[in-house]
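#structure-requests
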Amino acid sequence: MTFSFGDELPPEFYFSDNLFLLAVSKCHTLGIYIMLAHPKGTMAFSGKYEFEGDENYDAFVQKIGLPSDKVEMGRNCKIVTEVVQNGNDFTWTQHFPGGRTTTNTFTVGAEADMETMGGKKFKATVKLEDGKLVADFPNYRHTAEISGGKLVEISTSSGVVYKRTSKKIA
């Protein structure tokens, strides 16, 4: 049998309500089977991440036309991003200094109501491509991935690329 990310597994693959069989391999040398189990509902993105650094912020926010008050507010902002993932369902919350919070809730492959870093509301369909979450915002394309245990987000608008890296804190 072959399964893809997000597929519902048959009941015989679950050891308990919270643990499922991810892979089985036979070790011919030892004559044993090796089984890899994974907690159900916890995937690579779940966690709490704190802003560590960014690249090309000024050029990017100028390109997308972010208002000057929002530009200053976002410069070197210690954003804490909290991601809860349950299969293809995500709750993506960003906590800004001063108490402002933005939350986007979405299911991979389904249209959802979203909000930009500037507060603009829109509809988008988040896709999963090569382990990266990909969303087309009104005037930029945004990707997010876990790389080296860090949350790496890249936003691109007309050839201008902004990269934000956040370290996992929980």
